[in-house]
Amino acid sequence: MDGSRGHGARRRGPRAAGAAAGALLTLASVVAAAAPAQAAGYRYWSFWESDGGKPWAYATQGPATARPADGDAIGFRFAISSGTNDTSRPSAAPDFTGICGGVEKKDGTKRVAVVVDFGGPADAPPGETPPEKPVKTGCAQVREDATGAEALAVVAKPLRYDGAAMLCGIAGYPARGCGEPVADTGGTGETGKTQPSAAPSPSATAGEEDGGPSFGVLAGGAAVLALGGAAIWKARRRG
After folding, report:
1. How far apart are CA 19 and CA 232, in angstroms?
2. CB-based burial of residue 188 (10 Å sphere; 0-12 exposed, 13-18 middle, 19+ buried)?
3. Which of 30, 101, 133, 182 is deepest in the core (most CB within 10 A)?
């Protein structure tokens, strides 16, 4: 009986290894198919901040939670960006004095300079054209605890959000889409690039809404691949 059990264990080992290997190949194919081929990046509104006249800095939180102070500037730029090393700043400077110089501060309020850069034709979604005036500025006088999103709404309505509260459109542009992946076409014609310290938050949402791979899908696939590899190793030891 011992010999029979040993023979059965040896037979189950290769079968288990084969099944696990097949599962790994199938999963690898699914994960590979989920990733957009030659993706240049994502098309979305990036969010920038300037504290008291300092140069633009990539925001570390979204406009719905950021609370600029009186004298600050916030900026938004629509462009195709591939990540933290390829994100375009607003082309206009964060000039609080020039934008809000004629607005007197009132009790219980703050003044926030708002800059909206709609980008160029190369950044526009298919079938859409950027507004004739490429940059819009305005001074938002809002209550002292107002968010960046509230200040933006004063200057550039209407705003459009997706179901995950991602900012998709400013002043009606673009009319459709939200952080969609963009295929590599050999260049986007962007200007004013910098290297922000924080990754753009929209990219994680973009894959879930428009069919690209989300981080969760890829991370989950990697975990299953690791478990599958362990199963093969154990099966070979039993054999």
Report:
1. 9
2. buried
3. 182
